[in-house]
Amino acid sequence: MLSQQTVERVKSTAPFLTSHGPALTAHFYQRLFKNYPDLQHTFNRANQASGRQQLALFSAIGAYVHYLDDLPALTSAVERIAQKHSSVLVQAEHYEVVGQELIGTLGDLGGELITPDIQQAWIEAYQFLANIFITREQAIYTAQANKVGGWQGFRRFIIHDKIMESELIQSFILMPEDGAPVADFLPGQYIGIQLRAAGQDYDAIRQYSLSDTSNSEYYRISVKCEHDGEVSPYLHQLPLQSIINVTPPSGDFYLNLPLQTPIVLLSGGIGQTPLLSMLNSTLKQPLSKDIYYLHGCENGQHHAFAKHLNFQCKAHPKLHRWVWYQSPLANDLKSEDYDFSGLMSLDKVASELPIEQAHFYCCGPTGFMAEMYRQLTSMGVTPDRIHYENFGPHIDANN
User: Fold this and answer.
1) What DSSP state is assigned to residue 210?
2) How far is CA 25 from CA 11, 245, 261, 275, in A?
3) Which of 34, 212, 265, 375 has the highest CB neighbour count under 10 A?
4) 358 lies in some domain
């Protein structure tokens, strides 16, 4: 454990971190990529450009300093980050590099505040946290490799089939090139996909949720084509039989089966993919609890899996469904695929939901999840019954 002196010295830098956060994280990444350009194979360049990675790092540093004398409060955040790290194959040696550049950044921007004693305290505090991550991530890698059909590192998969699910969303059936079984996964988890898009100097690794039930033969992911993105447009145009590298299933956002309580699944846009896995996995079992599926998207052209959801509702009386179209098209007006216009507003169906008993699983854009969190807590749902997944760096929905 860290000494009280070390804790106090690190905490004394909190005002500096608060006032210099954006500049500090931007300077850190500039140093990191200047001195170790190959790390751009690992870091998401889109999140760098948008500032999400810098915000996530600043939030993580601030949380660590705040809870330095109450580290159990960070357990869930550590697990979520460790799972993300495992999907991009972060290794122990990466922590040494990142620590070196973080301490260097504090020295560059902290001036006289970063005395030798303060610097040594930060080195100790960083190494303590790094060891937590290294230990947990090694345990994840070992567990992944030891599963039936499991592996460690990258494994080559073939794009066996492609299915257009909506105007922008395409599903990919990925089968292992070696023909051996694939590891099972928990509904809601994701895999990492490594690609190098045309014209790019570095590889890119993206996490894509597994969008169907677990089986031993293949994985299915469903990907929205972001026209200004680096990876998704390239992935969408890859022909059948293309080879891609895949990391094992990861993630701490998942549904435990069999159900112990009713569940409510809330998705916005492409955020439906992990929830679809939860839904399909649940419906494969005898249902003793009700399931409520709420989805919001732009319009009918953007509504993926509508026919599948309608079929499941007819086949399973315990499944209840409501869909919002933000801006319905003329062709949507007589459609049975949606129920409400505008943004998702839970008060329209609150009387139908088991507010006091259910667990709520939410995935979508950050703004959507923040709004769902606000609406749910205002309706009396306790935070321990609200579960959510972020695409990209870890950012809390309740901020």
Assistant:
1) B
2) 18, 30, 42, 33
3) 265
4) yes
Nearest in space to 6 (alpha carbons), one of 130, 131, 123: 123
**311 lies in which domain range?**
263-389
Is the same domain home to 225 and 318?
Answer: no
Domain membership of residue 396 (yes or no) is no
Q: How far apart are CA 60 and CA 76, in angstroms?
A: 12
One domain for residues 279 and 330: yes
Task: Report the C-alpha gap between 389 and 240 in whole angstroms.
Answer: 30
pLDDT in tens, 182-198: 999 999 999 999 998 88
Residue 246 in tokens: 């895949």
Residue 320 belongs to a domain: yes
Q: Look at residues 375, 162, 194, 382 and name the one whose alpha carbon lies nearest to residue 268.
A: 375
The tokens 């939030």 sit on which residue? 59
Q: Report the predicted TM-score, pTM, of the whole model to 2 decimal places.
A: 0.91
Among residues 194, 216, 250, which one ends one of the domains? 250
Beta bridge partners of 359: 263
Question: What is the DSSP track for 145-208?
Answer: HHSTT--SS-EEEEEEEEEE-SSSEEEEEEEETT--------TT-EEEEEE--TT-SS-EEEEE
Residue 95 among the catalytic residues:
yes
- What is the number of structural domains in the chain? 3
Contact 34, 104 (CB under 8 A): no
Q: What whole-number distance in Å separates Cα of residue 26 and Cα of residue 55?
A: 9
Backbone angles phi, psi at 335, to 5 degrees: -80, 145
Q: Is residue 256 part of a domain?
A: no
Closest by CA to 264, choosing from 285, 293, 297, is: 293
- According to DSSP, the β-strands at 340-341 and 319-325 are parallel
pLDDT in tens, 190-249: 999 999 888 888 888 999 999 999 999 999 999 999 988 889 999 999 999 999 999 999
The single residue of 95, 208, 361, 373 carrying the catalytic annotation is: 95
Q: Which of 101, 137, 230, 389 is catalytic?
A: 137
Q: State the CATH number of the domain containing residue 310.
A: 3.40.50.80
